[in-house]
Write a structure and sequence with these properties.
Layout: E1 7-8, H1 9-24, H2 32-44, E2 47-51, E3 54-58, E4 63-64, E5 80-81, E6 87-88, E7 90-91, E8 94-95
Antiparallel strand pairs: 1-2, 2-3, 4-5, 5-6, 7-8
Length: 98
C-alpha cells in the first residue's frame, strides 16, 4: 500500500528531542531558521502524517469532550470540534452519523 512506512507524529517528536539535545547541549551546528520552523510545526500542530511524498498536517481540535470512561461523548453538542467548523458527534465512544 505504501512505498515507505508512515511517520507518525510521536516519532517526529522523539527525533526533535534528540535534535534539541544535540543543538542545545552539544552545540552541534545547525540552520537556526529550519530548526525554529520544525519546532513551531511540532509544538503548534495536532496531527502530522507523512507518507511517501505527502505530508498531512491537521490543526488541533478546539474541543474534545469525554465521558467518565475517557471515551468521546457529548450530549446535544459535538464531542470533537475544530476551528474550521468540522465536528464529530459521539456518545460513549460511538460516532453518531446523520
Amino acid at each position: 500500500m505504501f512505498e515507505h512506512s508512515p511517520i507518525i507524529v510521536t516519532d517526529l517528536i522523539i527525533n526533535c528531542i534528540w535534535l534539541d539535545f544535540a543543538f542545545s547541549v552539544l552545540n552541534y551546528p545547525h540552520d537556526v531558521r529550519k530548526w525554529t520552523a520544525l519546532q513551531n510545526l511540532v509544538q503548534n500542530c495536532g496531527w502530522i502524517l507523512i507518507v511517501n511524498d505527502t505530508c498531512i498536517v491537521c490543526d488541533r481540535p478546539m474541543q474534545i469532550l469525554l465521558d467518565e470512561n475517557h471515551q468521546l461523548h457529548a450530549e446535544n453538542q459535538p464531542a470533537v470540534q475544530f476551528r474550521d467548523g468540522f465536528s464529530i458527534y459521539a456518545q460513549h465512544g460511538t460516532i453518531q452519523t446523520n
